[in-house]
Design goal:
Radius of gyration of chain A: 15 Å
Strand order of the largest sheet of chain A: 2-1-5-3-4
Radius of gyration of chain B: 27 Å
Order of helices and strands of chain A: EEHEEEHHHH
Structural class of chain A: alpha+beta
Distance between the termini of chain A: 47 Å
Largest sheet of chain A: 5 strands, mixed
Helix content of chain A: 25-40%
Oligomer: heterodimer
Number of helices of chain B: 20
Chain lengths: 158, 757
């Protein structure tokens, strides 16, 4: 049974008509063709589907679409600024070699953004804790931690 | 050398697109009219198929086609065709939980899943066998036709091991057990198949070996190779899982042919864990003997490998592990016996390290036991037996560049080996060495690559390469080699790849071969293009070719201040001279004298790489949990192409190794994987990683491009034994199986207390 869901996506108010049992991830990828957010497990365990809803990092693969009604959602496609400048997190991930296959990257960046938006001065334990829901099989996380540490300094300066 | 990009940690060429979410992986692709396929898999580990009734599923609204074995060619298939034992769909028998029995194509995934539920299969269960040593015994249930479940066997002897053991002053003999682990690529295995009206089949698939899979698809479908095109794109990980064709490819192709629509099939994460093939699990019997002074004198290994229900690259994995076993420390008298056995479980397949992590776990943990027996420090024992540059080993392998001693010394200093061996509490450090291939293997008879460099009319440099980037950064590495040779920036080089219609035949990304083989081809192509650039420049600048310099993105006469851009050069070439600029490069691996594939053994390895890892760990005596505190990994790169990428390869491999050693384990119950999700199959998370220090040792390989050799796999090879040896140093217990779980530690600590007290 289809239902109209109204929410703000990457700064734009939108309305989609979808079966109400769908998850936010499916709607993003299948209905809205926003494939930047990835499907890694469908079970809320790997974090590849991480998006930000009302400031919180959520696993969109287990986030029912009707839950996002009247809320504000941000995906990886939405954090580049309007003039095309990369978000500082994107910039440091690129520069620090924190990206290999890149499949975990959008989710990892969104989880890091949710952290830094709430807590601009996290220590390493807080960084590790905030990203503990995001699996990476390629990098061993070393350069990801370095990148987030650098980003927090960049964001504080700028 | 005029270029100045080699070795630097520049950002990868594909990083920005990945950071913005623009990169399209196979799983992101959609096409007009595309249908979704799903596969019905056997719920039994062993059984006869009595009947299949697909009528209800065909009637379900939205289902376009249902197929079973009667709808597909029944050519048997395997990576090694002479061992072919699997058909696209099972016709009479299922041999593991997950074996493909039927498939549907429907308008969406939900409908396809519902359709599977409506297919009725009547199975007659057969007796099962899950343990390879049980499966070897006479009277064990036979999984395939034939007299035994033993499906591969190899033996090698060098020197006289029996006589040599009698001459040894110290001997250790132990058994080791390694386990099934899953690759856990973040992007699951998936593909899309589509036919053109003229019978050309195109398959989009995340594959490490596009040309090999193209042949495999053609072979199993019984169609000409030239009718098949494989397109790969950015891959969400490989680690060996994407080398051999998965049955999803021919299934999708057949569904696509029968429906006239593109068909996409995507593994669920559960299918990925339970059917996407595992690292080969081994039982290893190892005996090592040494002389009084610590010189290793004799060594004997017997490996029994769990093949799973069908053949994959198991014989290669067994064979390769026999080579690294024979080369490490150049022991003069060695015997290796390797056997693969069918069991009713999902198959094995290559996984980073290709058999080497398994045998190195046995070899390097036993070496510490031997060191204790002799009364030598484990570092001293290893330094004494180190492989040397230029040595011809007893098994016939010619070592060229070798940084083993440098790796050990650098790691020992960085880890503060001597200071940390006697720490208070349950804290200790342990080390392990490794040898691996740094350039693939010659064993397929073809170990070559072509590459092309073209200069566009605006001076942009493009490299066309068959190097496969599965996330390890191969395309950037190739571009960095070209940039170095042509004196341009890394970001000035565009890489075109990923399409078997475009790229020359190449065996794929495995065996840490890409930097060596494809890198040599890319360098040759750059050098060829450079010749043409110089010819054009000498005409344009009216100078001697030998006076032309390519540096800092400019072309000029040596000593002149008039420097021209590549754009100006290309403009001259195209518009004044009237001809384009390009280069062709070819690398053909030179074979040693008298080489034959079957007799060559370790001569199959073009170049060896060595490395040392030292782990510092703390054991909690109440919970048995092992916390890895610090890792030092010193590895040879020959010559580093991109320092950030090389470090990334080692860091990622070490963390995979930590998972391999301590937390990962596919648990089978009567042949069924019970932990088929990330909740219960534990790969390391960001909170689990220790401080990891990587040291890159450059030994300038004589045959690698600019001295480069491979770095993709070595990082995972010594990790588990380094941890096991650290545990021993911390609390005196030896665990000879993987994974080393808290319950194993607690049990062993209790036994130790009982023995002592």
């Amino acid at each position: 049974m289809k239902k109209a869901i109204h929410f703000t996506l990457n700064g734009y108010e939108i309305s989609v008509e979808v079966e109400s049992h769908k998850m936010l991830l499916q709607v993003l990828r299948d209905n809205l063709q926003l494939t930047g957010t990835k499907d890694g497990c469908g079970q809320g365990e790997c974090g590849a589907c991480t998006v930000i809803v009302d400031g919180d990092a959520v696993n969109s693969c287990i986030y029912p679409i009707f839950e996002v009604e009247c809320k504000s959602a941000t995906t990886i496609e939405g954090i580049v600024s309007k003039d095309g400048t990369l978000h500082p997190l994107q910039k440091v991930f690129v520069e620090h070699g924190a990206i290999q296959c890149g499949f975990c990257t959008p989710g990892m960046i969104m989880a890091a953004k949710a952290l830094l938006d709430k807590n601009p001065k996290p220590n390493e334990i807080e960084i590790r804790s905030a990203l503990s829901g995001n699996l990476c099989r390629c990098t061993g996380y070393v350069k990801i931690i370095d990148a987030v540490k650098t980003a927090k300094d960049l964001l504080r300066e700028g | 050398m005029k270029g100045n990009v080699l070795g630097k940690g520049f950002p990868r060429l594909d990083a920005i697109a990945k950071a913005t979410g623009e990169t399209q992986y196979t799983i992101d692709l959609n096409m007009p009219g595309m249908l979704y396929g799903k596969i019905l898999r056997s719920p039994l580990p062993h059984g006869l198929i009595r009947s299949i009734d697909t009528s209800k599923s065909e009637e379900l609204r939205g289902v376009r086609r249902v197929i079973t074995a009667r709808d597909v060619p029944l050519n048997k298939f395997s990576f090694y065709q002479h061992l072919a034992d699997k058909t696209i769909l099972c016709s009479d028998k299922v041999r593991y939980v997950g074996d493909e029995v039927a498939a549907v194509a429907a308008v969406d995934e939900e409908t396809a899943s519902s359709a599977l539920d409506l297919i009725r299969v009547d199975y007659e269960p057969l007796p099962t066998v899950f343990d390879p040593e049980e499966a070897m015994k006479p009277g064990a249930p036979l999984i395939h036709d034939g007299e035994s479940n033993i499906c591969f066997h190899t033996e090698r002897v060098f020197g006289d091991p029996d006589k040599a053991f009698a001459e040894c002053d110290f001997i250790c003999q132990d058994q080791y057990v390694t386990h099934h682990v899953a690759h856990c690529c973040l992007e699951v295995s998936n593909c899309i198949a589509r036919w053109s009206p003229s019978d050309q089949l195109t398959i989009w698939v995340n594959t490490q070996a596009p040309h090999a899979q193209r042949q495999e698809v053609a072979r199993i479908l019984g169609i000409p190779t030239r009718n098949v095109r494989i397109i790969s794109s950015a891959m969400g990980g490989g680690f060996g899982s994407k080398l051999v064709m998965d049955m999803k490819l021919p299934v999708a192709a057949i569904l696509s042919k029968k429906t006239g629509r593109p068909v996409k099939i995507v593994n669920s994460r559960s299918e990925e864990f339970s059917t996407a093939k595992t690292r080969y699990a081994n039982k290893i019997y190892l005996k090592t003997g040494a002389k009084k002074d610590g010189r290793l004198w004799a060594r004997e290994m017997k490996v029994i490998g769990d093949n799973g229900a069908y053949h994959d690259k198991g014989p290669g994995v067994i064979g390769f592990s026999s080579m690294t076993f024979s080369v490490l420390y150049n022991v003069p008298n060695i015997r290796y016996e390797g056997t693969l056995v069918y069991t009713n479980k999902q198959m094995g397949t290559p996984f980073r390290g290709y058999g080497n992590p398994q045998v190195t776990f046995a070899m390097e943990t036993q070496l510490d036991v031997l060191a204790k027996k002799i009364g030598m420090d484990p570092l001293e024992l290893r330094l004494k037996n180190a492989n040397q540059p230029g040595e011809m080993t007893s098994c016939g392998a010619q070592i060229t560049s070798c940084g083993m001693t440098q790796c050990m010394e650098a790691a020992a200093v960085a880890a503060r080996w001597r200071q940390k061996r006697d720490q208070k509490g349950l804290r200790g450090i342990g080390m392990a060495n490794m040898v691996h291939t740094g350039g693939g293997a010659r064993i397929y008879g073809y170990n070559a690559a072509d590459a092309f460099v073209k200069l566009s009319e605006d001076g942009a440099v493009t490299l066309i390469t068959s190097a496969v980037d599965m996330g390890q950064g191969a395309h950037t590495a190739m571009a960095q080699i070209v940039a170095q040779e042509l004196g341009v920036n890394l970001e000035d080089v565009k890489v075109v790849s990923d399409d078997t219609d475009l790229t020359p035949y190449d065996l794929g990304a495995w065996g840490s071969r890409t930097s060596f083989i494809c890198g040599n081809a890319a360098l040759a192509a750059a050098r060829d293009a450079k010749k043409e650039i110089i010819a054009v420049a000498s005409e344009m600048m009216e100078a001697n070719p030998s006076d032309i310099v390519l540096e800092n993105q400019k072309v000029y006469v040596n000593g002149s201040t008039d420097k021209y851009s590549f754009a100006e050069l290309a403009d001259y070439a195209i518009n004044k001279r009237g001809s384009p600029i390009s280069g062709r490069g070819r690398f053909v691996d030179k074979l040693p004298a008298g080489y034959t594939i079957t007799e060559a053994f370790a001569k199959n390895i073009p170049t060896f790489v060595f490395g040392t890892q030292i782990a510092e760990a703390e054991v909690d005596e109440n919970t048995g949990v092992v916390r890895v505190l610090k890792f030092v990994a010193a590895h040879e790169t020959g010559r580093t192409i991109n320092s950030a990428m090389a470090q990334g390869q080692i860091e990622g491999a070490v963390v995979q190794g930590i998972g391999y050693a301590l937390t990962e384990n596919l648990v089978f119950e009567k042949g069924r994987v019970v932990n088929d999700g990330f909740l219960d199959y534990k790969i390391p998370r960001i909170g689990d990683i220790p401080d990891i220090e990587t040291i890159l040792i450059e030994t300038e390989d004589p045959d690698g491009p600019f001295g480069v050799k491979g770095i993709g796999e070595p990082g995972i090879v010594p990790t588990a034994p380094a941890i096991a040896n650290a545990i021993y140093n911390a609390c005196g217990i030896r665990i000879n199986k993987l994974p080393i779980l808290p319950e194993d530690i607690l049990r062993a600590l209790r036994e130790l207390k009982t023995k002592q007290g």
